[in-house]
Amino acid sequence: GAGTTQAEALASDLLTETCPIIGEAILQIADPQVRNCGTVGGNVANGDPGNDLPAIMIALGATYSMQGPGGTREVAASDFYEGIYATALAADELLTGISIPTPPAGHGHAYKKMKRKVGDFATAATAVILHMNGGACQTASVTLTNAGETPVAVRSAADALTGTPVDDAAIEAAAHFAIDTADPASDMHGPAAFRKQMAGEMTRRAIRAALASAQGG
After folding, report:
1. Which long-range contacts (CB under 8 A, 24 or more apart) does 159-167 make?
2. pLDDT tens figures, 78-123
């Protein structure tokens, strides 16, 4: 449900077992006081590109449920974000729930975030989900936080990993696609050129961590 607090999601054995990247990301949101009050639905619904959970939900292929006077409808997380604080949620609707397909057992996952201080929004951050089989990547998702006006799904980076053993060459190719795709603003988090490069570095780190996770490391 959209009203589930971030602390409740973090404490969920079900989410820890099936979608551990959610807890990994929540631990990097603000501080315990905020996580005890802030909800998962609030984090994904307000359209702030600096929020951490939208990129996670896109990487996981989540769907949002919304309800208004006209009834209930569902929108894929990947189609929900339209701009800074602009979403597919109508003025007379509320986000009521989030549905997440259960990733296969043994999938790899990681969320790597660079920030100025504990609890800050990301200078750059990357979510990665990998499905490995027979030593090769079967499917992948690579999504950036705070690298544009919306969360950024870098499909070219995912394609660079798919069908490979996720070796150094594939990782470097994916990182360069992330750099090319990222379009951050120059702000208190750093100059745009620096933040683009850090999007690539967080992508490298997230892919390596996700691969280790998939391999049981």
Report:
1. 161/130, 161/137, 161/207, 162/137, 162/138, 163/136, 163/137, 164/136, 164/137, 165/135, 165/136, 165/137, 166/130, 166/132, 166/137, 166/207, 166/211
2. 999 999 999 999 999 999 999 999 999 889 999 999 999 888 999 9
Distance (Å, whole) CA 43 – CA 50: 10
How far apart (Å, rounded) are the C-alpha atoms in residues 210 and 107? 8
CB of 160 within 8 A of CB of 177? Answer: yes
How many other C-beta atoms can be found within 10 angstroms of the C-beta atom of residue 32? 13
Question: How many angstroms separate the first and last alpha carbons of the chain?
Answer: 32
Residue 39 has which token pair? Answer: 């909800």
For residue 217, pLDDT beyond 70: no
Distance CA 8, CA 190 (A): 33
Per the CB < 8 A criterion, the answer to whether 25 and 10 are in contact is: no
**pLDDT, tens digit (0-9, with 9 covering 90-100), for 165-202:** 999 999 999 999 999 999 999 999 899 999 999 999 99
